[in-house]
Amino acid sequence: MRLDDGRIARSLYAHLFEITAHDAATRCAALDRMETWLLHHKVPLFDLNAGNFVVANAKGAVELVCIDRKSVVGGKEILPFSRWSRALMHRKLQRCSQRLRERVRTALDGKVALAGHTQPH
Q1: Are 19 and 44 in contact (CB under 8 A)?
Q2: Cβ atoms 55, 62 nearer than 8 A
Q3: Per-chain mean pLDDT for the chain
């Protein structure tokens, strides 16, 4: 996927380990919007890890775009109850989204702490 300026969009994972213009709150807001969209459209996307998304700008807002379609097609469950039950699907998706939000906050909070740390002389 390419950004508006033609550059290749970088993964959320890459953004977690580099200093970028977007803070944890901005990325978590993008994740919230994505989670709301997935729930509304009943998309059973449960493999929510930072490597499966790229960070893009859409209409001036940071958005996450899934680049891993196989996660929607096939699941890892022997009996895919969370695909059969809307309530279970929602709970699992909310749990997975929360774990990714925590990962984003932890990585970015650690980066901020390291950036503000000075070495003693």
Answers
A1: no
A2: yes
A3: 79
In order, the DSSP letters of 77-96 are -SS-HHHH-HHHHHHHHHHH
68-90 per-residue burial string, b: 16 or more CB within 10 A, e: under 16: eeebeeeeeeeeeebbeeeeebb
Confidence of residue 110 (pLDDT cuts 50, 70, 90): low
Q: Is 29 helix (H, G, I), strand (E, B) or coil?
A: helix
What is the spatial distance between Cα 106 and Cα 101, in angstroms, rounded to a whole number?
Answer: 9
Instruction: Name the amino acid, one letter, at 85.
Output: S
Count the neighbouring beta carbons within 10 Å of the beta carbon of residue 34.
Answer: 20
pTM: 0.74
